[in-house]
Design brief:
Layout lengths: L8 H10 L2 H5 L11 H4 L5 H14 L14 H7 L4 E4 L1 H5 L6 H5 L5 E3 L9 E3 L7 E5 L2 E2 L14 E7 L13 E7 L9 E9 L2 E14 L2 E26 L8 E23 L2 E5 L5 E30 L4 E3 L7 E22 L5 E22 L5 E26 L3 E22 L2 E2 L7 E20 L2 E18 L2 E19 L7 E11 L3 H4 L15 E2 L8 E13 L5 E23 L6 E25 L10 E14 L15 E9 L6 E10 L2 E4 L4 E5 L2 E13 L2 E8 L6 E8 L3 E9 L4 E9 L1
Parallel strand pairs: 4-7, 24-27
Antiparallel strand pairs: 1-6, 2-3, 4-5, 6-7, 8-9, 8-37, 9-10, 10-11, 10-12, 10-36, 11-13, 12-13, 13-14, 13-15, 15-16, 16-17, 17-18, 18-19, 18-20, 20-21, 21-22, 22-23, 23-25, 25-26, 26-27, 27-28, 28-29, 29-30, 30-33, 31-32, 32-35, 33-34, 34-37, 35-36
Length: about 775
């Protein structure tokens, strides 16, 4: 049985938005504009071309004037795609004046962002946890260690969201794919300059972004870059109540009880630079070559302080007497940390056209990554004596090379066949040294970890029009991954391969304007992350069942998924859409982390260690609703108000874990967004706002552990004043309510009962942004 659906006022409000859909059918829907058949279908026969020319001639006598722009709108691109794809361009990227791409993504249909408001987190589709959503940059896999929150919206041209996998991209996309396309804009004539100042708790965060276009003969280019600085303060507390009734260090005791509050503060300063130039060269024979380097560098310095308010810590002896414990637990800890990350990634694409409109695309690229971090932590007891000095140094180097190709050939009437390949090779070298009072914290401390990965894929796909109402897509992709490494001199290897058949279809409902129904039947997978396969041990300074050390498992298998998607899309006459999407995913070889009490190399002490394992089968399903429209679509005399809303409801269950909350890790039950944009008549002002809502939820992550995540409500507002076409000013407020973010864990095993409850403060960020065309 699935959990009962709990209605709330917000749920009802959003459902009310979707109830407007039937009114759309009562509107007079004008016929869809005719396309130029010679451009959209080069194989059109003479009769079709003559019909189009007759239609174009008749349209000249029509009173209504139609303006044709250079390209399709985002909604038109979405409608024309056979496989479900949503596109969000500059309008969505610029609307709220966000400082990070994660803030933009959180408002998009079916997308959720982990972590507390304003501090970013992993990007998820359909509520599924980290690793189920494929993140691409210009169609290529994002570099290891890359964070979406480190990329500013100014460096992005558009966001493409694909709910189902397609053959030309990796099918490591059980939840879906988010493709970030970096800035293009070759044909713009003006220099774009954007400056902003962010304010959080009185701390200033400046940002400058510039795009300079140009053209030299057959070479066109756009030079884009941004620099930023950010200062943040974090404040949180953790309440712990632990009762350990397993074997104790002292055989004369029965149990150990700990009750305490821990207060943590962090001050952080981050500076960074992003460079995303793009070059396009057109050869005399019509071939084109595109090259786009991507450089990102960020540095972070932080200081931390933790204060422990020990309420009670005692052991219960065999005679039921209680004795206070002072086993070296710290009362105060101070620390400092420095981290620097540099990514250099190159994207290249060469396109050659053959006779008959066939074409060959060859892509190539490579990347280098450098991640260095070090930290130093001092721990003191309650009378100020130093009891620990903990140091950690982690240096990682990544390199990669990739190439691929796609040959596309139209054949017959309305058929397009494509086939291609992908090859990617990567190497990682990591050295980690962790010392506690000068002693190594794990056996491999100071050793090098060398890992090599190789991914090979071949694919074929066919897009075809069965009739004017029905189009389909069939694809097949084989992908193999090999990972090898040495840890502490021991060779480790993991090999896997997956076949992924894919089928998508779209049916345009006759006599219903642009309305259509989509269906997909696909197979996809989730490959184990490199750190899950091979990892230098990550050490916990407060080792416990709740805070274990973390390591890898070289014997992991990929998760395999079969999926079904069904969607209905109703396109409105004023650039709007109302849609409903239903999905099911059946997952095998589910990966979860398992915590065990492991004997250490000294043969005496034991530590809790968490490692990933394949535990069995799971399934998830959900419904995603979206409504985006202009109010004047339904009320012509109403205000110039744009409505943006989406609502998602998710269900899931994991077979090998006892319920009732045996859901997929980190998946909420529901999430919603609602936004409005208003343009008052007579003044060049646009104001708007949005609310992002995810209710509290509970996940049974294992038979012994329950994880709790509190409600997330994020309220954002903005105002935009356009002085002229070349100058506009935007003021925005993110996370206006600044509610505390709460999370926790309950462990209930044969030997341990423990509650950890964390409360973290969040803050409102104000941003003043000036946008100029020079």
């Amino acid at each position: 049985m699935y959990p009962k659906f709990k209605c709330s006022s917000l749920t009802l409000a959003i459902a009310g938005v979707f109830s407007i859909a039937p009114f759309a059918y009562s509107q007079s829907t004008p016929p869809e504009p005719q396309k130029n058949t010679e451009e959209t279908n080069p194989n059109a026969n003479a009769k079709e071309k003559a019909a189009v020319k007759k239609t174009e001639a008749a349209s000249k006598d029509n009173v209504q004037k139609v303006t044709i722009n250079g390209g399709r709108t985002d909604l038109e691109e979405r409608r024309q795609s056979t496989a479900a794809k949503m596109i969000f361009g500059r309008e969505e990227l610029d609307r709220n004046g966000d400082s990070s791409l994660g803030e933009v993504l959180k408002r998009l249909p079916g997308v959720t962002v982990g972590g507390r408001p304003g501090r970013g987190g992993d990007i998820r589709m359909r509520g599924m946890g980290n690793g189920y959503t494929q993140i691409l940059i210009n169609g290529e896999r994002a570099p290891r260690g890359f964070s979406m929150d480190s990329l500013t919206p100014d460096q992005v041209e558009r966001i493409e969201i694909m709910r189902g996998p397609v053959a030309e991209f990796s099918t490591q996309a059980i939840a879906g794919t988010i493709n970030i396309v970096l800035r293009e804009e070759y044909k713009q004539k003006n220099i774009d300059l954007k400056t902003s100042l962010g304010f959080e708790q009185g701390r200033i965060a400046p940002n400058v972004s510039v795009t300079v276009p140009g053209e030299i003969g057959s070479l066109s280019y756009a030079l884009s870059g941004s620099v930023f600085q950010n200062r943040q303060h974090d404040d949180g507390s953790t309440f712990t109540n632990s009762y350990d009734h397993g074997p104790q260090r002292d055989p004369k005791t029965l149990s150990e009880t700990l009750i305490q509050n821990q207060y943590d503060q962090t001050n952080r300063k981050t500076t960074g630079i992003h460079l995303t130039p793009r070059f396009n060269y057109k050869f005399e024979n019509g071939d084109t070559l595109t090259v786009q380097p991507f450089l990102m560098n960020s540095r972070s310095d932080s200081s931390t302080r933790s204060d422990v308010n020990l309420i009670d810590h005692y052991v219960t002896k065999l005679d039921n007497t209680k004795e206070s414990v002072n086993n070296g637990d710290f009362a105060v800890a101070t620390g400092s940390a420095h981290a620097e990350t540099t990514f250099l990634r190159g994207f290249g694409n060469w396109q050659h056209k053959f006779e008959g409109n066939a074409k060959l695309n060859i892509k190539f690229g490579g990347g280098l990554g450098k991640m260095d971090s070090n930290s130093l932590r001092y721990q003191f007891d309650k009378i100020g004596n130093q009891i620990d000095v903990i140091s950690d140094v982690n240096n990682t180097r990544d390199s990669s090379l990739n190439t691929g190709g796609k040959f596309t050939m139209p054949y017959g009437e309305g058929n397009t066949l494509a086939a291609g390949w992908d090859l990617e090779m990567g190497k990682r070298n990591q050295t980690r040294i962790s010392l506690d009072n000068g002693k190594s914290q794990f056996a491999e401390s100071g050793d090098n970890l060398d890992a090599n990965t190789r991914r090979v894929a071949v694919f074929a796909q066919d897009e075809f029009d069965i009739n004017p109402q029905f189009s389909a897509y069939a694809g097949l992709r084989w992908e193999g991954i090999r990972t090898s490494s040495t840890v502490g001199g021991n060779p480790i290897e993991n090999t896997s391969s997956v076949w992924s058949p894919l089928l998508h279809g779209v049916w345009r409902i006759p006599g219903a304007g642009k309305d259509q129904v989509r269906a997909s039947l696909t197979e996809s997978y989730r490959a184990p992350a490199l750190n899950d396969l091979i990892a230098v041990t990550s050490v916990s300074n407060q080792n416990s069942f709740y805070r274990p050390d973390r390591t890898g498992n070289p014997f992991l298998k990929p998760e395999l998924s079969k999926g079904i998607d069904l969607a209905f899309e109703h396109y409105l006459t004023r650039a709007g859409i109302i849609s409903a999407n239903f999905f099911v995913r059946d997952i095998n070889n589910l990966i979860r982390r398992k915590t065990e009490n492991v004997l250490q190399p000294d043969g005496v002490t034991k530590k809790y260690v968490s490692s990933p394992v394949n535990i069995g089968h799971a399934n998830t399903k959900g419904i995603e609703l979206e409504a985006k429209f202009q109010l004047q679509e339904f009320f012509p005399d109403g205000p110039a108000l744009d409505v943006r809303s989406n609502y998602s409801r998710f269900w899931s269950s994991v077979d090998d874990i006892v319920g009732p909350n045996n859901r997929l890790d980190q998946q909420p039950k529901q999430t919603a967004n609602f936004g409005l944009d208003y343009r008052p008549a007579g003044i060049p002002l646009t104001v708007g706002g949005s609310i992002n809502w995810t209710p509290a939820y509970v996940i049974q992550s294992s038979d012994a552990q329950l994880n709790l995540t509190g409600i997330k409500r994020q309220l954002d507002f903005y105002g935009l004043w356009k002085f002229n076409p070349n100058l506009q000013v935007r003021l925005s407020a993110n996370n206006l309510r600044a509610n505390d973010y709460q999370s926790g864990s309950i462990v209930n095993s044969d030997s341990l009962n423990r509650i950890d409850y964390n409360t973290s403060k969040t803050y409102t960020t104000w941003t003043l942004r000036v946008e100029m065309k020079l």
